[in-house]
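The pair is listed for reference:
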Amino acid sequence: MIANFFNKSKPVNVFITTLLLLLLYVFSNFGQNSVAFSLSFLIKKIVLFFIVVFFFLILKFIIEKNKLTKDNSYASLLGVFLLGAFSEVFFSNEVLFSNLILMLSFRKIYSLRSGINTKLKLFDAAFWIGISTIIYSWSILYLILIYVGIIVYRKLNLKNLLIPVIGFSTPILIYFTYNFYVDDLTIFYSAFNYSVNLNFINYNSLKFLIPITVLITVLLWSLVLVTPKIILVSNHLKSSWSVILNHLMIGIVVVILSPIKNGSEIFYIIFPSVIIITNFLQKSKSKTFKNLILYLFLILAISVYFL
């Protein structure tokens, strides 16, 4: 059964999840629409696939390094299923690249708990968010998560408050200098277009409505049942859980404000969602229930292509 197989983090699980990701990636790119094959097209798709794989490797690293879940592969598996359910991200380079860059920032934010090289981590986290903001302007909201980490992990002092500002400003100033040098500041200004789209009519389509409804239902169920238990228990996850919850809320705001509503924006809540749902599955003693949830997301990842 799927729950038993992924109950432990093993090298074979990485291979299986990568294979599942490849199958979903190939089907979403080549299974639905006829495409004009060319060498450049194929190279582009291969490069994008490895970027997605890199995203999941960083996700796995962050979770294991900071012990955000127990020793299992549920989070990676759920992430692959959700990516399959919202496969539009495969066609949105802007969303894909900004999320990859943000993962490098999250890696630093969640590791603030260790207390090692705090100032360097704060600079790096803000630096990566600055780069992501150039790619996708609403990424700027993740600066809030840095300050949440500073407060939650008790790193609050004047220097630590100022360092993220410097880190964030550095890539912005470099980008401005480059565009000023080539005398094309319109490109610089266009990168900071904070347009808002509150028209959710696209979500009425079954292709989006069903997976979004399932994700919200399971996510809310997980939050209600797991959060009180974690808050009442004094362990390393208690402080990180506050960061995860704020991470989810920021992601939801990014999704709501996103100027493009084609499903790819859901990618911004995948990271905190899979951690929350995994903690929910871990606390269940029923193997049948775990299998039910995992198979539900598997069916979801496949069925959306036929809606």
Summary: DSSP finds 13 helices and no strands in the chain. Residues 2-306 form one domain. The mean pLDDT is 91. Residues 39-65 form the longest helix (27 residues).
